[in-house]
Design a protein that fits this description.
about 575 residues; alpha+beta; MetI-like fold; nine-stranded antiparallel β-sheet; three-stranded antiparallel β-sheet; 21 helices
């Protein structure tokens, strides 16, 4: 019977040489090649989207890390910067430090005499923090009072964004012919010997044709709706009048566009045309093929004829009515830049200042400190609790229905949306226990609940990865169950536990929804000094800035995202390093 069982049966022939076998083999190779190509394509698409995302954030966020300043020659007088004529820190702290800056700007542009232009120059060009910086410098060194020195004054956020090329698209071209200017100030006439304004005029005419086409299309759509109205509908008359008005305006625009040499008036709703000539700047108000009229924004050094290439034209594509910075502001900035007075510096205040209503003064310090305090509370609470729970469940708990139920619920909690934990914190920590709203203590408690399941699961996996032979060897030499776990198993599982903890903390660092529900969305200027003081967090700071309309705050938002991504990359990189350094392969 044994011999019969060991007797080999007939050997099945393997077909590897027939045409059918070769066809199957080629088909399998093609399937593998397609699968490999699909994988490479998926990686390429994911990488492309990642590059586009990071590139977009970098493009928008890099301006937040620099700030623009203008160097002014100031002479602070004791009567202005001191409240009682003394030079003590108390006397100097309440002085008017904007006065020396206004005097420096007036000396730079003595032609500014009207009330409106003086207000623009004194209060809309420089940042409100420029006077505070001068106060700190003079308070630190009172010997500067009465002395003339150069002071780099911080510019307003709109001026800063313009100098960075983010406020409006700016086109510049050199003049191609001789230019004759009638005067050095006021209303002037510019005459081009070669018809140098013809190209700009043609662009304006093209814009008129586009506007006329848009009006005609709108009138056609309204006419279709009018046809659907009844003959007795009271809206017919008003609708027809609107259609006739739009068509009449479109006809007028087409008539203007059909006259290629007809002069056009440049208003606040059209792109601004600036002529930089003889050290001055002229804003064009009307333009023809070879002649234009304009208003001098910065006085010219001399009138008369200017040679070919000695002047240039600057076009600001965004109309003046659509931006906060006027053409007069831009003319002053261009004049300062031409004199070498404008400089760009690294924005240290972005990391050393708290939040502010002024974009150029707003910083991340409050959010950074708030996030740090919140993470400390989270780590102190969830790390020992999570590791202890994992040790008990993995090493000491009996395997029964109760422990199975606990394990299932822990896994379910890891998948619960974070906003649910925020609602729990609002109901329990704030409403029931009465803890302070918008405090890092409450934020840390909520995030600890959020991260705790992740740490328990990661710690259990690390403990389970330790070979059973380690436990058996410890028990075999007389160690107790507790000694085997804490002296042998836990140290070997610690790299995996630390990796899971770091990943969980990185997850908590980027959470916003739970913190919003417990009140950390408040506008906080001061830096918190303890876990019970009102604070904000870095993700909440990003959320607040993203809702503000100023272009500078949009750059600050992207810059803060870069800082947050940097922290996340560092934490995840630290987890990888720890795993590779301490990981043991069995």
């Amino acid at each position: 019977m044994t011999d019969a069982a060991l007797t080999p049966g007939p050997v099945r022939a393997i077909d590897i040489a027939s045409d059918e076998a070769r066809t199957r083999l080629r088909k399998r190779y093609r399937a593998e090649a397609r699968f490999r190509a699909y994988g490479i394509a998926a990686l390429a698409v994911a990488g492309l989207f990642l590059v586009l995302l990071i590139g977009d954030i970098l493009t928008k966020g890099l301006p937040a890390f620099t700030e623009s300043r203008v160097t002014l020659t100031v002479t602070p007088q004791l009567a202005a910067v001191s409240t009682d004529g003394g030079t003590s820190p108390e006397s100097l702290r309440g002085g008017d430090y904007a006065a020396p800056l206004r005097e420096a700007l007036q000396a730079m542009f003595p032609e500014v005499t009207s009330r409106q232009d003086r207000r623009r120059l004194f209060f809309e060009l420089l940042s409100g923090g420029a006077g505070d910086a001068l106060r700190r410098q003079i308070t630190a060194d009172p010997r500067l009072i009465g002395q003339t020195f150069r002071f780099p004054a911080l510019l307003d956020d709109s001026a800063d964004m313009y100098l960075k090329g983010r406020l409006t698209e700016r086109l510049e071209r050199a003049g191609r012919g001789a230019m004759t200017v009638s005067a050095t100030s006021g209303e002037v006439t510019l005459q081009s010997a070669t018809g140098d304004f013809r190209a700009t005029l043609a662009t304006i005419k093209g814009g008129l044709r586009d506007e006329a086409a848009a009006l005609e299309a709108s009138a056609g759509r309204v006419a279709q709706r009018l046809a659907a109205l009844g003959a007795d509908d009271p809206r017919r008359a008003a609708t027809q009048a609107g259609i006739d008005a739009d068509r009449a305006r479109a006809a007028a625009l087409r008539a203007r566009a059909s006259a290629p040499d007809g002069q056009e008036v440049l208003g606040p709703d059209t792109p601004s045309e600036l002529i930089v000539v003889n050290g001055g700047i002229v804003k064009l108000t009307a333009i023809g093929p070879s002649q234009a009229t304009g208003r001098v924004l910065v006085p010219l050094a001399a009138a008369g004829t200017v040679a070919d290439g000695a002047w240039r034209a600057v076009t600001l594509l965004q109309p003046e009515s659509a931006r906060r910075l006027t053409d007069q502001h831009i003319a002053w900035l261009e004049d300062m830049r031409a004199d070498g007075l404008v400089s760009r510096h690294f924005a240290t205040r972005f990391f050393t200042s708290g939040d502010s209503r002024e974009p150029e003064l707003a910083g991340l310090l409050g959010g950074l400190v708030g996030s740090l305090l919140t993470m400390v509370v989270t780590l102190v609470l969830c790390l020992p609790t999570g590791v202890a729970a994992a040790i008990y469940l993995e090493e000491f708990a009996p395997k029964n229905r109760l422990t199975d139920l606990i394990e299932v619920n822990i896994n379910n909690l890891a998948a619960v949306p974070s906003i649910v934990f925020g609602l729990l914190g609002l109901a329990v920590f704030l409403n029931f226990f009465g803890l302070p709203r918008s405090a890092p203590l409450v934020g840390g408690l909520v995030l600890a609940l959020l991260v705790l399941p992740t740490i328990i699961i990661a710690s259990r996996a690390a403990l389970k990865a330790v070979p059973p032979s380690i436990r058996e060897a410890a028990l075999g030499v007389g160690a107790s169950r507790q000694q085997a776990v804490f002296h042998h198993v836990l140290p070997m599982a610690m790299p995996g536990i630390l990796t899971g903890t770091i990943i969980g903390m990185a997850h908590a660092l980027g959470e916003t929804a739970p913190l919003l529900l417990i009140g950390m969305v408040a506008f906080i200027v001061d830096t918190p000094q303890s876990v019970t003081q009102a604070a904000t967090a870095l993700p909440v700071q990003i959320y607040l800035w993203s809702d503000l309309p100023e272009p500078a705050f949009q750059a600050k938002t992207a810059g803060a995202i870069l800082v947050l991504l940097g922290f996340l990359f560092v934490m995840n990189g630290l987890a990888v390093v720890l795993r590779r350094k301490f990981e043991r392969r069995w």
